[in-house]
Amino acid sequence: MIKTCRIGVFQVDALLLELVLWGGLLFFFWALKDGLGRVESDIESLKRRGKRQKGHLALRSGFDHPESVTERIGSYKGAAIYRFAKFDGRCYEFDRACPEEYRATVRDDELYVEPGLVYAPLRPGALPSPAA
After folding, report:
1. What pLDDT does residue 46 have?
2. Running DSSP on this structure, what letter comes out for residue 1?
3. d(C-alpha 71, C-alpha 25), whole Å
4. Higher pLDDT, 49 or 54
5. Could you please report the per-residue DSSP string of 72-120?
6. pLDDT of 21
7. Of 28, 29, 61, 92, which is most buried, counting CB atoms within 10 Å of its CB?
């Protein structure tokens, strides 16, 4: 009878250990799926940005090159900052300066102009001068 109890305890311990291991494996797969989902969405956003820039020097150099700019408002790292920029027929407005190491913070719909100027799509009501 004592041997049966020990075997019963051993069987319970083994079952508990197996359940914990299966739970750990399921958690690992869930975490892996979640991480790969983020990687996939990052790759898709890069594809969209690449398609938008296809055929431009921006894809090779890492910077967008506006077709025209108007209304100088300052300078950053020796380069002029303009209030408005036009790129692919769309108008953009200066938003912020962003050093190269923080480039990942630039959204897909924003322009990244050398030496690190970020232009956002033009807000409704903010009209560029006629020269843009």
Report:
1. 73
2. -
3. 59
4. 49
5. EEEEETTEEEEEEEEETTEEEEEEEE--GGGGGGS-TTSEEETTTEEEE
6. 93
7. 92
Residue recorded with tokens 């009501």? 125
Extract the tokens encoding 75.
């300078």
Using DSSP, state whether 124 is helix, strand or coil.
coil
* Pair 70, 78: CB distance under 8 Å: no
- Whole-angstrom Cα distance, residue 132 to residue 127? 10
CA distance 107 to 116: 13
Q: Mean pLDDT over residues 19-25, rounded?
A: 92
The tens digit of pLDDT for each residue in 97-118 reads: 988 888 888 888 888 888 889 9
CB neighbourhood size of 17 (10 A): 10
Q: Which two tokens stand for residue 35?
A: 């991480």
Q: What is the pLDDT of residue 126?
A: 61
